[in-house]
Amino acid sequence: MPQQKLCVSVPIELRCYQKIKDMITETNLPEKENEFGIKIVKNILGAIDFVAYYSDTGDLLKRVYYKGTDAVKVRHYRNSYLYLEEDFSGKLMIKKRIYDTGGNILTQYQYKYNRNGEVTGIEKHTNKNKYYVEYGYDELKRVNARKIYINNALINEQKYRYDILDRLVDYQDSSQHVHVNLISQNNELLSYVVKDKLGNEIKIENYFKNSEYVNTDISMNGHNIRVKDISYADNVVLKKPYTTESDLELVVSELYTKPEMCQTKRSCKEDSVVSQINEEAKKPILPISVRKRLLFNPS
Fold first, then answer.
1. Does pLDDT of 170 surpass 70?
2. Average model confidence (pLDDT) for the chain?
3. What is the number of other CB atoms lying within 10 angstroms of the CB of residue 96?
4. First to last CA, the chain
5. Which of 144, 146, 202, 245 has a CA between 20 and 30 Å from the CA of residue 53?
6. Nearest-angstrom CA–CA distance, 179 and 198
7. Range 189-213 average pLDDT
């Protein structure tokens, strides 16, 4: 008679009381013993130590280690080498390590949480430097503050505010204050104002046609210019902050990225003096003798 597969073993003394019904039997199983590439390893007490996962070619992909019913560690392998290790507490990841082929730690991440299970900090160790981002939340559990530390020194503090539609409309850090005036129904950034700590005010007006970016009008301290540069409509500081490693990487990379001072094809809207100077510069320079004659005899 085919033997039933159960998740627990039944003691021999109780087998006589077991009800028998053909459900999943050995005869219904595939011929290949390890069809899904999974191997369960138990300790000497019979509890599951870890579960190993293999590729179709038999290469080890990962091992998931258990303590009771909870997964406490996941090790990922590439070409039989350990390259990623994750530690968990309950369902929350508390640490992540990335290795080279020699087993040395290249990068390590650590996570901190509040009692609601929300990430309050992510720390990254790499190249003998420590980067740390600390997060704050508003009453609706949205990230409204971000502090950036490098080697324990506070580098920048950012604050965010949202509207009733959960759109970011206000940003402030140690250098600037950005206020969004208008967002389209398609969430296109149409108008915002940037004020720096020196009192400069930059007004940005972006124009779209059929959801395609067209150009931007920029006004700085009363002087206007028109440019075509989509970065004004896709401003990195007006991106919503998320409590992920990618967010940390974005924040750190932005600290080391200086804005480029470049000329752009543009049309001046107000500065007529500039055009006059350009026109004068195009005129040929006459010989000095001719210029003296014109000076004393203009007619």
1. yes
2. 84
3. 18
4. 125
5. 245
6. 17
7. 95
Residues 6 or more apart whose Cβ sits within 8 Å of residue 100: 83, 106
| Measured distance CA(291)–CA(283) in Å, rounded | 14
pLDDT-derived band at 286 (thresholds 50, 70, 90) equals low
pLDDT of residue 290: 47
What is the residue whose two structure tokens read 């069809």? 35
* Confidence check: pLDDT of 29 > 90: no
What gap in Å lies between CA 162 and CA 168, rounded to an integer? Answer: 4
Contacts of 118 (CB under 8 A, 6+ apart): 135, 137, 141, 243
Pairwise CA distance, residues 77 & 63, whole Å: 8
pTM: 0.73
Contact 3, 25 (CB under 8 A): yes
Rounded Cα distance between 289 and 69, Å, is 99
> How many Cβ atoms sit within 10 Å of the Cβ of residue 82?
18
Token pair, residue 88, equals: 């968990």
Q: Which residues contact 233 (CB under 8 A, 6 or more apart)?
A: 188, 189, 206, 208, 213, 216
CA trace torsion 103, 108, 114, 117 (10° rounding) = -60
User: Per the structure block, which two tokens stand in for 152?
Assistant: 């324990």
